[in-house]
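Lab notebook, bench 4. Still working through the backlog of constructs that have no structural model yet. Next entry is a single chain of 414 residues. Request: give me the structure tokens for it.
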Amino acid sequence: MNINSIQLFFLFVLAITALRLWLTMRQIAHVTAHRDQVPQRFAARITLDEHQKAADYTVVKNHLALIQAVVETGLLLAFTLGGLLDACAQLPLRWFAEGGYAYGLALFAVFGLIGFVVDLPLSLYRTFVVDARFGFNKTTPALYLTDLLKQTLLAVLIGAPLLFVVLWLMAQMGEHWWLWVWLFWIGFSLVIQLLFPTLIAPLFNKFTPLADDTLRARIDALLARCGFRSSGVFVMDGSKRSTQGNAYFTGFGAAKRIVFFDTLIERLQPAEIEAVLAHELGHFKLRHVWKGIAATWLLSLGLLWLLGVLMTQPWFYMTLGVHHPGTAMALILFMLVLPVALFPLSPLLSAFSRRHEYEADTFAARQTNASDMVTALVKLYRDNASTLTPDPLHSLFHDSHPPASLRIARLETV
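Model written out:
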């Protein structure tokens, strides 16, 4: 049984990797084939040079994605069947007793450090070569290092206590520990949502109240029409890292904030900014945010229950090449395998998200003007060098938003 289950796991990982590589190569081929002609729907709004820049940027990013898929698969197989996790399990034994909470935290630290070292070259190349080549990167090496240090500090100050509580609940709450961990996770995620806008986000960016009185008046009128209350409208200095623009909501309840990248404020007209904001408001008014949270909570409950079943089975560890079972080891193994196991479900998650995007677009068109939403989308696709001709199958697996042509076609019928 062990040999067969090991072979099954190995073949499944290879099959998922082959699927990822095939989808990525489809994307490269499809975008390249449509590189020399702007889609008819965008011909009056996007120049050929802009279209080709987006195509080239997409192709380069997907070449990098091919490398990343191979690296991730190699690391997964090295950790499991290659015995790397077993080797990692030996290292903390020099200082901590096996099975203790300190040992579990140390094992996670070793595991995380290896993953960080493997991912770092790709991250640096993506930022300082790919994004710089296409004129997007504004991050300096000093800023990159500062961000890295802050992220590491937050991981220690927040992640370590979180992990300790999870490991304690897994060890102390009996066979139904997964329910207690789930309840704790819900509470923790809500607290982070509440604290993120005012305590965490300002560590990385500067947020200033929107100073444009005319634009602020438009936004206030839109908020009033939609019955939406927030703690403020802020502009974020996103330009210090990238030329790409965006807008988002953060927090919940009385702590909700509306945040615009300064690059978006600079490039869009007030009516277009209003339309983009109306789209985001649509997600709240149509309860997409809470529907997404509820779906995530239900999925996490099911997954934690599954982990509770698997971690008691010796074959679970043996199949994944581990000979030192334990609470922390089971959690690491589950985290390693989960992305691979869930990848076939990506189209379902994508369909769920895309339906919400269409509904938010319709809401925005009715609260503002459909033509303003269209021009805003075109500018965002152009300025962010997002391809207008994605491969449909690749997009179905990887894109939470519908392709530009489909979104705009729907908006033009509203």
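Notes after review: The mean pLDDT is 90. The first strand starts at residue 207 and ends at 209. Flag for follow-up if needed.
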